Amino acid sequence: MKHLQIILLTLVVLSTSCDESDTAKVVDEEVGHHVVTVDQVSFDQAWAQLQTDNPYSDMFQLNGLSNDSTTLIIDVAYSGGCEEHTFELIWPEVMTMIYPPRYTVILNHDANDDTCEAYLSTTLYFDLSQYDLGLTPELMDVVDLTIINGSNGEELLKLNN
């Protein structure tokens, strides 16, 4: 009887466990939220915070920047894996009246006090068509856009530059 219980317990554990690739996939799908904020006060506060030794944003790394029509695509990497992470792209309200338009925006990261040490890479998609930025698909192909890392003001990526 004891052997039967051990065999049944082993089968239950094996049937409900997942392999390493399944775990990595789940973590990758649970990146968290990413939002766009278009507000001059928020941008000014984030910019001022970048000038201090205590940035508002949790640490992360910018790995790539591209666009597909009006969707901004940003590749990032960060430590974590146990909590939901949020990325916020902060745009100033000021519209430039030059062609091509020029924008400097800040990407902040909130790790929600995640103390796990896995190093995760993910791609963030920001659909900019739903915001009053005046960025048509044609302008997205020529816009001079600089993304500044909110945790390290010296790290930046440029689109179309």
TrEMBL record:
PROSITE patterns: PROKAR_LIPOPROTEIN
Family matches, as InterPro entries: NigD-like_C_dom_sf
Protein name in the entry: Uncharacterized protein
Organism listed in the record: Reichenbachiella faecimaris
